[in-house]
Amino acid sequence: MTVNVTDYTRRIEEFEGWQMGVTTYRLGEKWWCVVDNVSPGARLCSHAADSSAAAESHAVGVAKRLLGRTRRFPSTAVVC
Amino acid sequence: MAEYAHPDMLASTAWAAEHSKDANVRLVEVDVDTTAYEQGHAPGAIAWNWSTQLSDGRTRDIVSKAALEKLLGESGIDTNTIVLLYGDNNNWFAAWALWQLKIYGHKDVRLVNGGRKKWLEEGRELTADVPAVTPKSYTAGAPDWSLRAYLSDVQKASAAKAASLVDVRSPAEYSGEIIAPPGLPETAQRGGHIPSAASIPWGQACNDDGTFKSADDLKALYGGKGVDASKPAIAYCRIGERSSHTWFVLKYLLGINDVKNYDGSWTEWGNLVGAPIEK
Lengths: 80, 279
What we know:
The complex is a heterodimer.
Chain A: E1 2-15, E2 18-27, E3 30-36, E4 43-49, H1 52-68
Antiparallel strand pairs in A: 1-2, 2-3, 3-4
Chain B: E1 10-11, H1 13-19, E2 25-31, H2 36-39, E3 46-49, H3 65-74, E4 82-86, H4 88-103, E5 109-112, H5 115-121, E6 125-127, H6 151-160, E7 164-167, H7 171-175, E8 198-199, H8 215-224, E9 233-236, H9 242-253, E10 259-261, H10 265-269
Parallel strand pairs in B: 1-5, 2-3, 2-4, 4-5, 7-8, 7-9, 9-10
């Protein structure tokens, strides 16, 4: 059995100075949301739910937790 | 208008859709998110797990010849099979798989231009059905290590500026502002880049839909940042999969003869005691 992806959207959101790519689409009865970190474009998380809002809310929440843990080092910082 | 040096190394999504079930074609999905295939994949595609099937499970190394022969045979691939590779994350791990198949001499392996992203964006069919595969016997070639850079190669290239060193990571990783892509584990003790490396993020080689830019645009991009087509080139990233993508561009689209992928990449260099680092 095959299904086609429908309602494919992608947008960029910003969180604490990091860009997130939020891609959402419908596959059969489920909505999928995949979040990446734009630069460089690595996948952070994905989630499926019965609505696009639910899928996005969960996936974006996980992505924000991951992004919030990213350490930044100014050029003069000493890394320990 | 220039052509790609080896346009036969690419397949369009349309071509993949039309030929994925041909007897001499095997479509393979290679994702970083190994659940993506189960979610739905191109009809006729099988899945490879990049971390368990395309890497050595004990030592940090690529897949062994014996393990690759087993994988390809069980995938219904023989030496005459056209292997079409695609995947999520902008085809990074599909490119990683292609690099290894080329190391072991597979004749005809191609990247599906745009990967899974383009397949989804185009609203193409997906299925959860796993195709039945008739195993075959596969004998790989002796490994061609000229496609791979080791630490000593990179140390010499950096010190003597004897090769174009291409850092394909994000600008923030290159500068050392961050040690790994935002949201991912750091896996290195220090941030920055290898001395004399040019920053050419992998994504600058692609259009918005994930397909590769034209040959003219790629020439302008890499030439404009100091990549000399007459010299060897070495691409690196964090663990070697983004740099596989750029390795593919330099070698097969731009036709630079001597291009190596430094799969040790920043997780090796950034953890090495005494390794020089620029920021």
